[in-house]
Each structure stands twice: as structure tokens, then as C-alpha cells.
Amino acid sequence: MIELIGIHRNFQVGDQMVRALDDVDLNIADGEYVSIMGPSGSGKSTLLNLIGLLDRPSHGSYRLNGQDVTSLSDSELAAVRNREIGFVFQMFHLIPRLTAAENVALPLILAGLPPEQRQPIVAGALAELHMTDRAQHKPDQLSGGQRQRVAIARAIVTQPKVLLADEPTGNLDHHSGEAVIRILEALNKRGITLIMVTHDLEMGQRARRRLRMVDGRITEAQHGAA
Amino acid sequence: MRTRDFLNLTGGSLVSHRMRSFLTALGISVGIAAVVLLTSIGEGIHKFVLAEFTQFGTTLVGINPGKTTTAGTSMGMFGTERPLTIEDAQALKRLRFARAVVPLVQGNAEVEAGNRRRRTTVYGAGPDMPEAFNMQVKSGRFLPDDDPTAPRAFAVLGSKLRHELFVGRSPLGQRVTIGGSRYRVIGVMESKGTLLGFDLDDTVYIPAARALTLFNNDTLFEIDVMYDEETPVEKVVQGIKDTLSVRHGRDDVTITTQQQMLDVLGSVLNVLTFAVAAIGGISLLVGAIGIVTIMTIAINERTNEIGLLRALGARQGQVLSLFLGEAMVLAAVGGLSGLVLGVGIATLLHAVLPALPVHIPVMYVVLAEAIAILIGLVAGVFPAYRAARMDPVEALRAE
Questions:
Q1: Taking CB atoms and an 8 Å cutoff, what residues of chain B touch A98?
Q2: How many beta carbons lie within 10 A of that of residue B51, not counting itself?
Q3: pLDDT (mean) for B177-202
């Protein structure tokens, strides 16, 4: 359960204060499928980064699964991120020198899981994304769609409750993008909360709950069947 | 993170940039090789010089006439030191701890044998000289235990002088003229080599009393006392001081123990070793700057990766240790290859130039590697700290 109350996020740009998020209240229940849309600079990514604990609010309160996370230390936030949240980025962010399997294993390595325990988990995540035969390939040997599937496998390898996707299809052709969205939706159907930032209206409309942001505020919220 | 994973991640990152890692490690390698090589030569010289000095044994005490003091007014005749005499040497010989006592006079004179002549160093000495200075007689015998004040005119040749004056024939029993006086050769010494530029073989030994007459001296240049190993050196010094004070009416000699000489020499040589190590240290500093540069470049290039690691749950400490680990592995590998290089060149140098003393102490080798790792640590701290403190959002956004 994600609970944001009166969230402000201000940035100092030169001598000007920019309000990236302006008094945002938002509740997202477990298992929801939420899309966040809006023009560039409206605060979509800032909101996603805050929900993903990559950033801290200037004011306001954030409760994740009932725990106030605004007061957690940097190390505690890192541990929560590792355990509870999966990220899928537009640019994939795979480490080029590591194989697909090694990239997927990274969150488990950071958590200190021994190789014999993480190997079956990594194999399972790759199998789920139909990437078993590409496990030993480096990112530059994979297509865009395959890279994003490896990135999704990495995002779910710790079995997080929340999956945050920032323009997950932004770097893919329509066919690959469609495939990636289907994978994300399938994961949501299994119970993972899916929050997706997108510019793509068609993709955004597929979410059951659609948020629109303008100037750091959520101006419109629509609910509907995906 | 587990140690194996930590090593895989740091090692993998270095291997993925082979040429860059190689060149950075090479900087440290050259530095460590320079330190090891220069220190080995410095230590070699240190050991060589000490060995040269201790070849005469470590239980020697040198007594020289005169004492270095400062007084307010002239002491007139009471301030004049008395000469060091052969009788003084005889008195010292009666001390319980004295195993060998050598009165020494040194000078330069022309030595003539048949139609060959050579200007050389003449030592006026006593019969105890071979024992005190650890010298061996090659043929014949050394100066006999004659009455020290009226010895017979015998001479013992150094090995070089023997070859210069008696080419292809035995000098034993032959006559030589030293400074106009005739002597009979009764022995030839084994070669002793050189000591700090002095050729110990290009010499002739004659009785001290005759050398005093030859050089028209009233005082010995030095008396050397070799003492019993069981006796503490302080007791030896006190015994000599007491004996000579009674004979001279006051303490007017300078007593130098072998240990004092070695201490002074040791400290001078330590400075020398430190100085050459410092010269090598400059190249290590350059290597360290190389690591800082490469790590800074690596962090700028891998900003995305840092952001990703943070997003995946890496703590700041983990990012810090990963980059610090890379710097330390680079330095450690560079250090190891530098050790191999340094030891290799030192060994090769010694093989090619056997006269060049080289000594590689294990402690220095271990220390050099520890210093290399420490350099990696220090050089890596700033870039790694910068990586750890990066804002993950900004890092992920970086191009």
C-alpha cells in the first residue's frame, strides 16, 4: 500500500525554486495498475522516483506498506528498495560487461544471497521472460525487446510488491513495446502493483487507473477497465 | 555482498577495460620496481660497507692521542696531550680483557727490492695485528714477539706489493729497503682487498718502533685493543681510560669502540637507503596520480551504472567499497608485477655486475606490496567517495 500525503518536492535551479511536485496526495492499493501521464516537466518521473525511494520529498509524508519511509536512513531506504521495489527503465540500464544472467542476479548479489541460492531464482526469472537461451549473452548481443525483458527479469528477481516502469516502451518498436507491456500486465495480474510513467496515450489508457499530471499536481484521475 | 561476488564485480570491471587497467597498473608497477630496485641496491651497499668494517671483528677498540674538548682559557703545558707510546700499548696488553693489542703507525715510503721500487703504505704494527684484524699470513710468518722497543728489522709484505717487487720469485729471506733502512722479508699476507678505497694489499708491515723512527714520530697513530667477548664494552673502555690516565696523568685520549663506529656508519647508510627509496617513491606518486585519474574517468563513464546499483538497493558503502576495491586491485596487481620486475632486475644486475652489492630483504618486499595497496586505497578514496555520494536520480539520468 502506497500512501502519499501532502508531498512537495522543490528543486533549486539557479536562483529560482522549482516546484516539481506540489501538494500531491495519492493512495495506491496493493495489486493496482496505475499509469501516470502528462507533458514533459509535469513531475511524472519525480513522483515515480519518490515512490521508488530514489528521492526524498521536501515536505509531506510517505507511508509504504504502513511504514513511514520519509525518516529512514539512506541504508534503510536502499534495503527497502532492494526488497520491495522493482525498476524498469526506458534505457534498460543493463551493465554491458555482465551477461543477461549476471545482470538479473545483481539485486540478489547486493542482498548478499549465495550463488547456490540465487542461481535457481535467476533461472526462474529468465525462464518467465522466455530468455533462458539468452542467459549467457551480453547486452550488446540482445535486441531492444530482449534487453527490456532482461531488465524486467532483474526487476522481479527479488519478488517485489511494487514494479515501477519509467517509459518502459519508449526505446522499443511498436511490436516489442506491445510485448513488454503484456509482460508487465501479466505480472500485475499475479498481484504485483504496477505503476507506469508513459507519454504514450495508448499504453497509458490500458491501465485500470490513469493519473494525469500538470505542473507538479495530479489534475485528473480516471478509473476504468484495462 | 559476498566476498566472491565483490571480487567478481571489481575484477570484471577491470578486465573489461584491459588496456586502461594494464597502463594504470603499470604506473604503480614501475614505481614499486624502482623502490624495490633502489632499496635493494641501497641495502646491498649498506650490508657491503658494514661487512667491510666488521671484517676486523666487532670487539675492537681504537685509541687515538688527544681528546676533543672545549676549555675557557689555555691550559698551557697541562693542556698538551702526551704522546701515545709503545709502552702505553704494553701497559694495555697487561689488562685482563685484552686479547690482542696493536700499536699502529702509518705512513708512506719507498720500498726497494733489487732493481724494483714502489712507493707504498707502510704500517708500523705489532705481532698481534693478524689476530686483531682477522688477517691471514700466506707464507712465512708475521712480525715476531720481539722486545717492542727494540725489534729486529723484519718486514711482512702485502700480497700486491709482493707481486710488484718479487715477480716470479719468493721474497722470503730477501732484503728490502724501506725509507733507506734495510729489512728482511719474513712473510707475505693473504689478500685482504680494499676498504673504502684503501688497498690493504699494497702495503708493507714493519715493527711499530722502527716505523716511529722511519717517520720521525714520537706518538703512535693509534693503539687497537681486541678484547674478550665476555667483557662488556663499557668495562673495556673504563679499563683503558684508567690505565692511560695513570700513565699520562690525565684522560687525554679518544677511545672509539667498533659499536660506535658501526652506529654512526649505520645511521649514515640508513639515510642513504631512505634517500634512494624516496627517489623511487616519486615514481610511486606518479602511479598514484594515474589511479586517481583513471578512477575519476571510470566513475564519470559509469555514472549510469552507479545510479542503477543504487536503484537496485546498493548502499552508499557498497558503491564506495566496489570502486575502492577496483583501485586497490589495480594497485595490488601493479605492486605485485612491480615486485617481480624489481627483484628480477636486481638479480639480473647482480648477475651481470657481481661487484654491485644487491640485497633484497623480505620485509621490504612485503612492505612495498603493502604500500602499493595503501596507495590504491588513498588514490581511490576520493573518486570512490564521489561515486558513493552521487544522487541516484541524477546518476540514472546521466547520458
A1: 12
A2: 10
A3: 86
Q: Do A75 and B316 touch (CB under 8 A)?
A: yes
What range defines the domain where residue A71 resides? Answer: 2-223
pLDDT tens digits, A169-206: 988 898 999 999 999 999 999 999 999 999 888 889 99
Size of interface A-B (CB pairs under 8 A): 68
With a CB-CB cutoff of 8 Å, which residues 45-84 of chain A face chain B?
49, 52, 54-55, 74-75, 78-79, 81-83
The answer to whether B313 contacts A75, with C-beta atoms less than 8 Å apart, is no
Show me where the domains of chain B are located: 3-53+263-397, 82-251
Which pLDDT value is given to residue B399? 66
B197 — pLDDT class (breaks 50, 70, 90): low
Strand extents, DSSP E, chain A:
2-13, 16-28, 33-37, 59-64, 67-68, 85-89, 162-166, 193-197, 209-214, 217-223
Q: Which of residues 317-346 of B touch A (CB under 8 A)?
A: 317-318
> The CATH number of the domain where A144 resides is what?
3.40.50.300
Chain B residue with minimum CA distance to A102: B9
CB of A221 within 8 A of CB of A211? Answer: yes
Q: CA-CA distances (angstroms) from residue A130 to A88, A95, A147, A179, A180?
A: 17, 20, 12, 12, 12
pLDDT in tens, B238-251: 999 999 999 988 88
Positive/negative CA dihedral, A132, A137, A142, A147: positive
Distance in angstroms (rounded) separating the CA atoms of residues B297 and B53: 54
The answer to whether the CB of B371 falls within 8 A of the CB of B284 is yes
Tell me the pairing of strands A16-28 and A2-13. Answer: antiparallel
| SS3 state of residue A148 | helix
If one counts every other C-beta atom within 10 angstroms of the C-beta of residue B263, the result is 11
As a whole number of angstroms, the distance between CA A174 and CA A185 comes to 16
Q: CA-to-CA distance for B157 and B170, rounded, in angstroms?
A: 11
